[in-house]
């Protein structure tokens, strides 16, 4: 039964599209600027050094901070540090910081039906 529930997560992981945000932009703004919505269910899937690095953040050569923050995961420009979230309840599509570039979990949606994935 547990495998069945895990495989039928909504939205499905195949709908995840990551986007790198500019400093000062929320994930809601970043995803909307690309014609998508921020999907909070996917934050736990992208909250890793590997995800940050694969999406263009210099985490291999930068410090890594694990913090309870509304803007993680992301990259702090002034301290040159990659940040990861330690508290899953703090993942936020709307958190912003003027010095942090966020890694955002976006997904496409059906026009007029934001809750539904375009390809789901």
Provide a descriptive summary of the structure in words:
By secondary structure, this protein is an alpha+beta fold. The protein contains four helices and six strands. Strands 1, 2, 3, 4, 5 and 6 form a six-stranded mixed beta sheet that branches. A hairpin with a 4-residue loop joins β4 and β5. The longest helix has 7 residues. The chain is globular and about 40 Å long. The protein starts with a helix and ends in a 13-residue tail after the last strand. The N terminus is likely disordered.
Summarize it:
This protein has about 120 residues and is α+β, with helices and mostly antiparallel strands. The chain is built from 4 helices and 6 strands; from the N terminus they run αβαβααββββ.
Could you outline the blueprint of secondary structure elements for this entry?
Layout: H1 2-7, E1 17-20, H2 27-33, E2 37-38, H3 43-46, H4 49-54, E3 63-67, E4 74-76, E5 81-85, E6 100-107
Parallel strand pairs: 3-5
Antiparallel strand pairs: 1-6, 2-6, 4-5, 4-6
């Amino acid at each position: 039964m547990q495998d069945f529930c895990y495989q039928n997560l909504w939205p499905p992981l195949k709908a995840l599209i990551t986007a790198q945000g500019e400093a000062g932009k929320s994930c809601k703004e970043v995803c909307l600027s690309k014609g998508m919505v921020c999907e909070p269910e996917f934050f736990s899937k992208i909250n890793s050094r590997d995800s940050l690095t694969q999406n263009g953040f210099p985490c291999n050569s930068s410090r890594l901070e694990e913090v309870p923050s509304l803007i993680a995961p992301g990259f702090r420009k002034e301290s040159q540090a990659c940040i990861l979230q330690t508290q899953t309840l703090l993942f936020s599509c709307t958190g912003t910081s003027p010095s942090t570039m966020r890694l955002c979990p976006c997904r496409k949606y059906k026009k007029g039906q934001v809750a539904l994935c375009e390809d789901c």
